Amino acid sequence: MSLTAGVVAVQGDVSEHAAAIERAATDHGREVTVREIRESGLVPECDLLAMPGGESTTISRLIHSDGIASEIRDHVAAGKPLLATCAGLIVASSDAGDDRVDELGVIDVRVERNAFGRQKDSFEAPLAIAGLDDPYPAVFIRAPAIDAVGEADVLATWDGRPVAVRDGPVVGTSFHPELTPDSRIHGLAFFENEAAAVPALEDVQ
User: Fold this and answer.
1) CA Rg, the chain, in Å?
2) Looking at the annotation, which residues are catalytic?
3) Closest Cα partner for 71 from 49, 96, 100?
4) Is the dihedral of CA 137, 147, 197, 10 positive or negative?
5) How far apart are CA 110 and CA 199, in angstroms?
6) Can you give the residue range of the structural domain that contains 92?
7) Which of 76, 110, 121, 158 is buried most, with the most CB atoms less than 10 Å from its CB?
């Protein structure tokens, strides 16, 4: 029986995250079944969870109205891993810097939306990321930056600003790791995070 991974599918690169999770699982000798999360009741069944980018105010509104937000908080409180990317990072933060966003508060950071420019300012950069041996080809699209870090650990910076952090079982990135064939961020978040509770290979029957 495989692990169950959920991708919060109210908005964003859902299929790309699903494919990246599957590649990372294969790289780590695991089997995974990916489910798209559009309603409450599914998150509690998940061992792993990803929250893609999109538009942070829309994501925030939908996960709260659909009853998913409290389940994500419970998932993290249980020590299960969550990967929150771009707008997902904003929603997962403790301070989104925007009153329209009802933050989940599962990453102890303050963020600035669109800190690296608008859509036309998108770029790719080789990031040195703690835990990875070689630079990661990070894709930034309307990317937020992290203004202040509380209890979270900074994993990577760009232009002097944190762009990847880990707070217990949660990894947050300003960039879009699902938009590259390199699945090492998903591996780092889900299979190489000692603070996260993922069933051991021998426990998954």
Assistant:
1) 15
2) 86, 176, 178
3) 49
4) negative
5) 31
6) 3-203
7) 76
Q: Which two tokens stand for residue 22?
A: 């599957």
What pTM value is reported for the model?
0.93
The tens-digit pLDDT sequence of the chain (205 residues) is: 689 999 999 987 899 999 999 999 999 999 999 999 999 999 999 999 999 988 899 999 999 999 999 999 999 999 999 999 999 999 999 999 888 999 999 999 999 876 665 555 578 999 999 999 999 999 998 888 899 999 999 999 998 999 999 999 999 999 999 999 999 999 999 999 888 888 876 554 4
Domains of the chain: total: 1
Q: Who contacts 80 (Cβ-Cβ below 8 Å, separation ≥6)? A: 46, 47, 48, 49, 169, 196, 197, 198
- Which CATH number does the domain housing residue 198 bear? 3.40.50.880
